[in-house]
Amino acid sequence: MTLIPHDLDVEILKERPETAPFRIEDDSAADWAVTRLAEVRQEIEAIQSMASREIERIKTWCDTESKTLVARGTFFESLLEDYARRQRHDADRKSISVPHGKVSTRFTQPKFEINNEIFIPWALEHASQLLRIKQEPSVSAMREHLVIDGTKLIDPQTGAIVEGAVATLPELSITIKINEEE
């Protein structure tokens, strides 16, 4: 019986007694696991590559088949928009209801193009109610000016515990890098 790499992995793991789960105990075993991980990642990449090619093929087909229909839809939308504008202007009809649908019109709010460098100083001097002030914690300032004691944050100048904020303990980050074959 010829075993492929995946089957070998299964056989190696099966040889372990039921009471002792497989663990990596030395660099040689770690290298074996990295090799197996690289193979798994290559298989995933191959599957994703194949899926991407098929998705692109189907997307191209969809775009080609839809092109004429999109143009026809745009044509009918422009006819309906023209009719709705004329009805709004001439007869003050806000909506047109027909058995197969409804065409509605409404005026949107005006949009503002604001030059902050000019507007903000003007508003500060003449109409401060036109400005809003956004307040939010500065985590970088907190790291610089507060002391962490377990999960508590302490103001070192007063010794007071900072209310409304806690620290979380740092977590160990593990990165697995597989060397590319040259």
Features:
182 residues, mainly alpha, two-stranded antiparallel sheet, two-stranded antiparallel ribbon, 4 helices, flat
Quick gist of this model?
Helix content is 51%, strand content 8%. With 182 residues, it is mainly alpha-helical.
Order of helices and strands: HHEEHHEE
> Pairing-aware structural class of the strands and helices?
mainly alpha
Main sheet strand line-up: 1-2
**DSSP strand (E) fraction?**
5-15%
What is the molecular shape? flat
Helix content: 40-55%
Tell me the number of helical segments per DSSP (H or I, 4 or more residues long): 4
Distance between the termini: 33 Å
Task: Give the integer mean of the pLDDT values.
Answer: 89
Nearest-angstrom radius of gyration? 33 Å
Detailed description of the structure:
This protein is mainly alpha-helical. The chain has a domain at 32-104. The chain contains 4 helices and 4 strands. The strands form 2 sheets. It has a two-stranded antiparallel sheet. It has a two-stranded antiparallel ribbon with strand order 3-4. The radius of gyration is 33 Å and the shape is flat. The chain starts with a helix and ends in a 28-residue tail after the last strand.
Could you outline the blueprint of secondary structure elements for this entry?
Layout: H1 5-14, H2 27-91, E1 95-98, E2 101-104, H3 116-126, H4 139-145, E3 147-149, E4 152-154
